[in-house]
TrEMBL record:
It is a multi-pass membrane protein. Its main location: membrane. The lineage of its organism: Bacteria, Bacillati, Bacillota, Bacilli, Bacillales. It comes from Paenibacillus lutimineralis. GO terms for cellular component: plasma membrane. It comes from the Bacteria. This is DHA2 family efflux MFS transporter permease subunit. It is found in: Cell membrane. SUPFAM superfamilies: MFS general substrate transporter. InterPro entries: EmrB-like (IPR004638), MFS (IPR011701), MFS_dom (IPR020846), MFS_trans_sf (IPR036259). The chain crosses the membrane at residues 12-36, 56-78, 146-169, 175-196, 208-228, 234-253, 273-294, 306-327, 339-357, 363-385, 406-423, 443-463. Keywords: Cell membrane, Membrane, Transmembrane, Transmembrane helix, Transport. Pfam families: MFS_1. Belongs to the major facilitator superfamily. EmrB family. The keyword Membrane applies.
Amino acid sequence: MTSSDKQSAKLAPIPFILWGQAIIIVLGAFTSMLSSTMLNTALPSIAASLHTSSSIAQWIATGYFLSLAAGVPLSAWLSRKLGPTKLWLISLVLFMVFSILCAESKGIYMLIICRVLQGLSGGLLVPAGQTITSIAAGPKRLGRVVSIVGIAVVVAPTLGTTLSSAILSSLSWPWLFWINIPLGMVAFFAGLKWLPKIEVSEAGKFDWIGFLFILSGVPLLIYGVTSIGNTANAVPIGTSIIIGAVLIIGFVVRSLRREKPILQLRLFGNRVFSVAAVVMFLGGAINFGAQLLLPHYLTDVRHLSLITASQLILPQVIGTAVGFPLAGRFTDRYGAGRLIFTGGIIMTISMLSLIFIEVNTGTTWVALIFFIWGLGTALATVPAMTAGLTTVAPDQIPDSAPILNMLQRIGASIGTAVITLLYTKNLTSGLDQAHTLVVFKNVVWLLLGSILVLLISSLTLVLRENKNAR
């Protein structure tokens, strides 16, 4: 269907069963992503309970985050071998098993090992779920269905810290793992009954060397990038980045030479997919970089308490939650390129507003800026994911979903690292509010430049859609 047809045609209706399947996938993704932040506030109490140092306890969070990213590329081969639905169910069971083992751990190293394995299984859930929904929904409904999954991925980490504090106020830290069990059980039995049974495809021989390359390369690169500026790391930062990059390059070269690799990187020969991948990478860097930067205006410039600052950040989450379903609906009707461009313009307006913000700007205006930012990021992210999934053949979706997820996570790591480095490097002790605001605004300019690149990339999709319409 051409772009002009999309604009005039009614949206393809979504059957009730498809909405139900999307909700089941959302519950699995929510459980996995919720666990990514729930442990952050509990690390001091865990360290005290298991008689270890805070630096070692930090690996409970770091290990999960790194293994979550490492599990993503493996999902492509496993989806072809087992089928995405079977992979999703197995991953969910493993996630619950390792959650139980984490809750029952009596020593810190046992907890870290189980937490890493929990992250690996959790890293399979999101791309496997997106593969299921993409195949079940089809290209005419995909935007709306993907947007529902996206809400869980964005909202769950935000709720994790709040829910963790509530649990720890009356219960011990193992309950942060036990909470995964009822959520996972509901998702598992519902998925067993209602998720579609998708046929498996030819997976090819498993590439153990390539697997070891990507399994080690992605975590090492992310660990090194996110540790920039931190001199207390056990592994030298430069060494981690270089080794990680070399291993990823080795994986790319090896994958391109194999007929059936773990991850089909020949998809980048598709121009639309390549642009969608670039936008996902930039979107991850911009979105997560901004999530790190925006609270600093409230705490460092305005000297607000963490509770007050979290209340003012909430409109950003609301804007994102509102934007996701809108983005899905508009993508299905008008195509991805125009909506990504629109989202980029909205993000630009929000960032430009921050350039003119002052120390005593009204909180209502600040909250509105944050809401607009959340709305813009949603409008730019959902269409990119949808474009990347709909432009490939159905049998290539098991590869496209992990690639887009992996690039978004690497982009997020780089974005947070660069923002942290530039902000903290120029923020010296003793600066007054006015000078701190100048440092904040200088970093905002970097985000604006990144958004400009995103806008230029989205124009490629707009031109392609216009060409297809003629």
